């Protein structure tokens, strides 16, 4: 299902604001804290920060592709992506801050250089995922906001803006997990009455199997679907919450 693009200028501004919040949080840390475990298994805070910087550059590659019509992959290879993160993880706080600021500036320049006429151009992300150029700022926003949570520096789900939560919930249900073979058919319901169907389609003859209904606040639903919440605030309506595949 296609998601209607939001306002491009608004999305770009949201990325800049989220990046500023991230940098403020990092300014309260020190070199020792960078080497401590993040909330992502196997990654230190330095790994998370290195990934964020390299992701900005990867999205610059896609924005350049959209602008020039010259195919430019996000990363040279999956191995190169992983190697870059490992290479850059064990650096000083100052080095990480400089890298994040400079890569964010390159991303800003790339979105500013994208002509309006090229915003509907489709590019290929990792794993063959196709995306419109005008949705790349939203992709970046999710990276910054969710990985800010992963740093374990006091930034919590409840601090995410309602606009981000609503947009991310729509993306997760209508794009990310729509038809996903590893997620049972779900009906996602928010406390304010909105609902979505997502997960894999039913198999076999006959009518489609009844989906597992999961309801709760939009924030708790986003936390559960992104692996940033345990789902204890959600209601499975008599069914156990299924395991959500990693993003």
Structure write-up:
- This protein is mainly α and 247 residues long.
- 48% of the residues lie in helices and 8% in strands.
- Strands 4-3-5 form a 3-stranded mixed β-sheet, covered by helices on one side. The chain has a two-stranded antiparallel ribbon with strand order 1-2.
- Strand 3 and strand 4 (195-198) form a beta hairpin.
- It is globular.
- Mean pLDDT is 93; it is low at 1-5 and 203-207.
Secondary structure class reads: mainly alpha
Following the backbone from N to C, one meets helices and strands in this order, namely HHHHHEEHHEEEH
The percent range for strand residues is: 5-15%
Largest sheet: 3 strands, mixed
Helix percent reads 40-55%
C-alpha termini separation: 18 Å
Major β-sheet strand ordering:
4-3-5
Mean of residue pLDDT values: 93
Count of helical stretches: 8
The geometry reads as globular
Beta strand count: 5
Q: Work out the radius of gyration.
A: 19 Å
Low-pLDDT residue spans = 1-5, 203-207
């Amino acid at each position: 299902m296609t998601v209607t693009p939001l306002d491009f200028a608004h999305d770009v501004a949201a990325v800049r604001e989220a990046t500023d919040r991230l940098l403020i949080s990092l300014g309260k840390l020190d070199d020792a804290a960078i080497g401590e475990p993040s909330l992502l298994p196997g990654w230190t805070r330095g790994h998370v920060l290195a990934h964020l910087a390299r992701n900005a550059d990867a999205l610059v590659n896609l924005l350049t592709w959209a602008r020039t019509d010259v195919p430019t992959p996000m990363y040279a290879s999956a191995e190169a992506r992983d190697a870059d993160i490992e290479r850059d993880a064990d650096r000083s706080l100052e080095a990480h801050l400089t890298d994040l600021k400079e890569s964010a500036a390159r991303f800003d320049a790339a979105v500013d250089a994208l002509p309006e006429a090229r915003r509907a151009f489709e590019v290929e992300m990792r794993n063959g995922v196709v995306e419109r150029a005008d949705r790349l700022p939203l992709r970046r926003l999710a990276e910054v906001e969710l990985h800010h949570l992963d740093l374990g520096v006091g930034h919590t789900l409840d601090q995410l803006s309602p606009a981000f939560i609503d947009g991310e919930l729509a993306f997760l249900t209508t794009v990310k997990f729509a038809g996903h073979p590893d997620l049972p058919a779900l009906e996602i319901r928010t406390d304010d009455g909105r609902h979505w169907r997502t997960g894999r389609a039913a198999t076999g003859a006959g009518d489609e199997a009844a989906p597992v209904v999961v309801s709760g606040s939009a924030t708790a639903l986003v936390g559960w679907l992104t692996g940033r919440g345990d789902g204890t605030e959600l209601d499975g309506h008599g069914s156990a919450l299924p395991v959500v595949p990693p993003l």
